[in-house]
């Protein structure tokens, strides 16, 4: 496929330190049941994408100090933040989802934007992908950062609203911003006909 007509479901940072356990629950200010529902919906969206022949890629975060830039380290020191999703730890493992054989995994090393991970953009270009569907965490951090770059690089953007939640800002404000600024389509995972291909 050489034209950019393909669709890829991008599963962002669905990892234990963001979804479950003491690290996630200490940071997330909303109802823990929301995180549980979101991650359950992400797993369902992955299944639906596979059923519809839509490519699924996984993006994971590792936050080891060795990967952090000076501004990241300074921020963490000022705010008393501890590194999350340490490489090889339980916190870095996927939560409720796992790549199937042949599905690609891209690693962000102490950064928000999946386009900064090795090979992510090149893979999408090779696949002829023109439409990215986002599911994962968090809407106002890594999902937004990646969607922003995607839009600027010419990709169409869809956000599965029941497969994400925000960490710092109200969900509806972030989604409205993404719709207005990136032209993002917002739908739910239960409507795969509306997101599993570019229409």
Describe this structure in words.
This protein has 199 residues and is an alpha/beta fold. The protein has one domain (6-194): Isochorismatase-like (Rossmann fold), CATH 3.40.50. It contains seven helices and six strands. It has helices at residues 16-19, 21-27, 32-51, 70-79, 120-127, 139-152, 171-182; strands at residues 6-12, 55-62, 105-109, 129-136, 156-160, 185-187. β4 (129-136), α6 and β5 form a beta-alpha-beta unit. It is globular, with a radius of gyration of 16 Å. The mean pLDDT is 96.
List the helices and strands and how they pair.
Blueprint: E1 6-12, H1 16-19, H2 21-27, H3 32-51, E2 55-62, H4 70-79, E3 105-109, H5 120-127, E4 129-136, H6 139-152, E5 156-160, H7 171-182, E6 185-187
Parallel strand pairs: 1-2, 1-4, 2-3, 4-5, 5-6
Q: In short, what is this structure?
A:
By secondary structure, the chain is α/β, with parallel strands linked by helices. The protein has helices spanning 16-19, 21-27, 32-51, 70-79, 120-127, 139-152, 171-182; strands spanning 6-12, 55-62, 105-109, 129-136, 156-160, 185-187. A six-stranded parallel β-sheet has the order 3-2-1-4-5-6, sandwiched between helices.
Largest sheet: 6 strands, parallel
What is the strand content?
A: 15-25%
> What is the straight-line distance between the termini?
17 Å
Shape: globular
Pick out the low-confidence regions: none
The CATH topology turns out to be: Rossmann fold
